[in-house]
Amino acid sequence: MFEVASKNIKPVDVAVGILMKPNGDVLLGQRPTGKPYEGYWEFPGGKVEAGEPILDALKREFVEELGIRILSAEPWCGVEHVYPHAHVRLHFYISREWDGEPQSLEGQAFAWQGEVGVEPLLPATIPLLEWLDILQTDANNSVI
Q: What is the pLDDT along the chain (144 residues), one digit of tens a residue?
């Protein structure tokens, strides 16, 4: 279910991926120069093209941005957020299986984070951190 921020503008669908290591660490990327909110940290992803399934968009974006291939991902949650420049509908997926090591293909910085310590964070990312902390705690406490 989506948290609706505004119904006045048609939202842009965005596929967002949370790469999660077995220890619960997640990958955050820094928005590059020239984009709105440049320098802010976010989970990687991008716009869904017309008629494109969201998971396919996520897989395409991860190849284009990070040079990795998502092997599996599960839908996690959805959030709508209105920024001054855009109204977005964010579709979050969690992936624990991918092929390759993330690379900076679009000149962005990225960092693996356990307890998220980078800032500033993109505003739509902030409310999800509490939920993510629960997932990370579960990952760290699981018995293999």
A: 444 444 567 899 999 999 999 988 999 999 988 889 999 999 999 999 999 999 999 999 999 999 999 999 999 999 999 999 899 999 999 999 999 999 999 888 999 998 888 999 998 888 887 778 776 666 555 544
Can the peptide bond before residue 11 be classed as cis, meaning omega within 30 degrees of 0?
no
In one-letter notation, the amino acid at residue 132 is L
Q: Judging by beta carbons within 10 Å of its beta carbon (0-12, 13-18, 19+), is residue 113 exposed, middle or buried? A: middle
The β-bridge relationship of strands 41-42 and 45-47 is unpaired
CATH architecture of the domain covering 2-141: Alpha-Beta Complex (3.90)
